[in-house]
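Repro case for the chain-ordering regression, as requested:
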Amino acid sequence: EPEVTQTPSHQVTQMGQEVILRCVPISNHLYFYWYRQILGQKVEFLVSFYNNEISEKSEIFDDQFSVERPDGSNFTLKIRSTKLEDSAMYFCASSENLSWEGDTEAFFGQGTRLTVV
Amino acid sequence: DAKTTQPPSMDCAEGRAANLPCNHSTISGNEYVYWYRQIHSQGPQYIIHGLKNNETNEMASLIITEDRKSSTLILPHATLRDTAVYYCIVRYSGNTPLVFGKGTRLSVIA
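-- result from build under test --
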């Protein structure tokens, strides 16, 4: 069964450093998402990405965050200058593109645990 | 914010059916009901979704009331591996972001 793959599974970084989290979405999917979950809290939407541009973003997704699809398979989340409060699980998800409004499920990766020290 | 209301926790005996309720009284006509679950801190796992009709797949059944203001996820024979947080999510169209609430923590007990 196809799956969303995320690397690394765990990353430790020093405050102020830049990190890049990587995701390989399911191959025929064209909509991509990043979510985060701070320990003990809800899963929160960060950003969605389609056709090489951001289609929606939340208030959390400020100027320190950026996303990119550098090649045909990877989808990355960059955090420019990490803060202690960026420590969380980061989940990537993907879904099929629909040319009409309809139902389709999003599939999630297993996440990257980011620890900022 | 999530447009759904779920009980914070439920217990279920192993082998019995687990019935997880969800209220979505403000749902609009073209919004779907999705169910996901999260085991420990793993990525959310898709379970099932529906619009108006009841749905069944290999994992679960989804019962949506006629007025669409509530729904029930049924796991027909719960196992210990079904212990997880279950999220009921109302979603407008296929590619809009999922908005997670706090979900229901289901504990399956041997």
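Ordering looks correct now. The first strand of chain B starts at residue 9 and ends at 13.
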